[in-house]
Amino acid sequence: MAIELFNNGKHICLMFSDLVDEGEGASVQSNQFLIVQDGTGILLDPGGVLTYNDLYIGMSKYFPPKQLRYVFASHADPDIIASLPRWLAGSDTKLLISSIWSRFVPHFCAQGKTEGRIIAIPDEGSLLPLGDTEFQILPAHFLHAEGNFQFYDPVSRILFSGDMGASMLPEGVAMEAVQDFDKHLPYMRGFHSRYMVSNKVCRYWVEMVRKLDPEWMVPQHGAPFKGRAMIARFLDWIEALPCGVDLMTQEMYQAPRKVTISL
Predict the structure, then answer these.
(1) What angle do CA 244, 249, 257 make, to 5 degrees?
(2) What's the confidence (pLDDT) of residue 262?
(3) Which DSSP letter does residue 137 get?
(4) Residues paired with 97 in a beta bridge
(5) How much is the pLDDT for 60?
């Protein structure tokens, strides 16, 4: 089911939070996003084959999917773009992805199917014009991927933040905006401690986002953050969080001496 995050009659932002359901926690919940404008749109982090059919049907309510202008991939994980071959076959879209990952993308597709269809984003990010809107593709490297980007919509003031702000929530509640930050924190702490590379890059990212002053921050996993006060709570928290390489010790880099997995 599509959830409207923003709609001013001309510009619409949609979130799909319930398209990945393999039961019993067999797959990671993920959100997909569609920005609709001027009879076309931008699909953000469309996901794997589990999401394609429902996304295609949902998109058809707003414009013919053949007219999809861009697919944006924050990075190259399977839950981000494993469905890419279907989107390339079913539309005239082009893929926006980090220049670091652009040469890996063809491994998802049959030979020759990505030729002329990939736009490699430089490390510094880019502005993306569409109609009378100029979107911002923001650098978010090592949060968590080496080449990582986020997407900012200045009309809706939504920051599509990829893995930053992600939460591992019980089934069926990812569509609800965070109401109590302290209660929500346990669903985020472990993920950010492991997946964000270091506190240093988190602090650089926080400085950038505070200048943007978004009204929504919507991650690729879990619940969105709505309102400046709730986003500020998150920024204060992540700015101070030791994570990734900050937590590594020599004890974690020892050759194993026994079998600890079921063979």
Answers:
(1) 115
(2) 81
(3) E
(4) 120
(5) 94
